[in-house]
Amino acid sequence: MSEESDAGAAGELPEYAERVLEVAELIPPGRVMTYGDVAEWLDEGGPRQVGRVMALYGGAVPWWRVVRSDGVLLPGHELRAMEHYRAEGTPLRQASRASDGHLPRLDMRRARWDGEEGAESHT
To answer: In what residue span(s) does the Methylated-DNA-[protein]-cysteine S-methyltransferase DNA binding domain sit (predicted)?
Structure first.
């Protein structure tokens, strides 16, 4: 907790948060990485730590590109995320009639970015 309050007072992000946000910025438009993918890319932390960083500091980066592994849209941010996904052409799966709000999910097989394809144009 003191790390967060220190970071807020100094206006600087904790080092781990900076690294997570840098990865989020590398993800090409129309592609996504899961919270676990980001942690694996960094070889540090886990999905929960990445999610915490995104919740606290992710507003300045393409937050909609760091997602849950099941492709379900971030609760409370579904409509804003959908605007981005549609604008970027992110692959989606049609919502089933039983799904909450009939919102589509991300097509993780097609949308998931492995961190390599297209990386040279985003460095």
So the answer is: 16-75
Residue 123 lies in a domain: no
Q: Taking residues 60-84, report their average pLDDT.
A: 94
pLDDT for the residue numbered 103: 80
User: What is the dihedral sign for C-alpha 82, 87, 88, 91?
Assistant: positive
The answer to the question of residue 72 being in a domain is yes
Predicted TM-score (pTM) above 0.90? no
Tokens encoding 7: 């970071």
Radius of gyration of the chain (CA): 15
Phi-psi domain of 118 (left: phi exceeds 0; alpha: psi -120 through 50; beta: other): left
Beta-carbon contacts of residue 42 (< 8 Å; ≥ 6 apart): 16, 19, 20, 23
Q: Could you tell me the residue range of the domain that residue 103 belongs to?
A: 2-111
Q: List the Cα angle 72/111/69 in 5-degree steps.
A: 35
Query: Strand, coil or helix: what is 63?
Result: helix
Q: 105: which strand partners?
A: 93
